[in-house]
Amino acid sequence: MRELLIGAAMALAASGAWAQQQGVSDTEIVIGESDPLSGPAASVGLAHAIGTKLAVAEVNANGGIGGRTVRLIQEDDGYVPSRTVQTVRKLIDVDKVFAILNTSSSAGSLGVVDMIDEAPVVMMNTFVNNTNLWTPPRDNIFSIGQGYPQLAFQTVKYIDSQDPNAVWAIIVQNDDFGDNLVEGAERALEQLGKDSALTIRYNRGQKDFSAEMLRVKQAGATALFSGAISTENVSIAREAVKFGLDIDFGMMWTIHLDAVRDLMGAPAQDAVFAEYTSVLDESAAQPILKLADEFLSADERAAVNRTTLAAYAGAKVLFDAMAQCEAELTQACVIEKLEGAKDIETGAMAPTTFGPGVRFSDQKVRIIRNDFANTAFVPMTEFEAVDY
After folding, report:
1. Strands (DSSP E) along the chain, which ranges?
2. What residues does 75 pair with on adjacent strands?
3. Integer CA distances (angstroms), 324 to 24, 25, 96, 336, in order
4. pLDDT of residue 40
5. Are 341 and 351 in contact (CB under 8 A)?
6. Among 314, 315, 333, which Cα is nearest to 20's?
7. N or C: which terminal CB in the chain sees fewer CB atoms within 10 Å?
8. CB atoms < 10 A from the CB of 181, how many?
9. pLDDT in tens, 27-77
10. Cis amide linkage into residue 136, ω under 30° from 0
């Protein structure tokens, strides 16, 4: 009987240790992410998946983490919130990952945040900038980037500084993502002593924006903050031309994708956006692009964009913390090391810092202008903290 009790106690102890170190064996570390590899946000999701793959290839080429190979599982949720829930549950309960490097969309991410918070994993979010992911902070969920409200805030303030007589309109998705953007845009206008002449909310996946842009024209708007993601921006820009609108566009960083910029074409010339990642052709990003030349296929290399840089940065910061825990790679140790992360250079953005109890890196941002005529993205300001 005594032997049975000892055996049971040892099994329980082993079970507890395994639960604490889920996804870690003597030879490998399993990590995963849920990306929109298909659907309306596929150009962003594929680029993000490539960035994670690049960081994994780099760390494995250098001997892994503590001699363990990092194994990456990437799931496609199609930018559908219910599928995000399914894929994240699979990663946690079936694949038994140690870390999650992405979830997709505001709605999808907010739908799984409690599940991740209760799981024996660490999450590094570099894709969804919804402030509700880090407010209030959750012990095992870290976010690198800048919040949607802050990005909208900075964009509106910059455009208005160039044209103090601007009459503003706002167009956003009718969801949590849109709520975040309206919060930031309206806060900027309040500081400027203005109101939005018109705020429009559209449904996810909407394709026809003729009625919405007619309303923008009727409101007399000369500046438009568009919180659209990809194909919606194309329709919005084309309808602006159709109605003869001479309007200053402020957009989200999704225009910092060649595919979106090219589809929008000349109507998006000189559109501006607040951005926290490097521009691909500047010197800071070149070491990452050299890695891409080494480790990615030709098709993957061609798909690299700013989201690739963000994904690479998040993985690099996480892997650095994991490497500091190689003797005892546990969730608790990695959380402790991430809290100690200060001014981590990745080349993908300004240095990244967390801190005790801090789960959001609050990246510095700058304003970028879309120069469609010269196929270039032109920094208009230096990286600076957002005074929100």
Report:
1. 28-35, 69-76, 99-100, 122-125, 141-143, 168-173, 198-202, 223-226, 248-251, 272-275, 366-371, 376-379
2. 34
3. 15, 17, 22, 10
4. 82
5. no
6. 333
7. N
8. 28
9. 999 999 999 999 888 888 999 999 999 999 999 999 999 999 999 999 999
10. yes
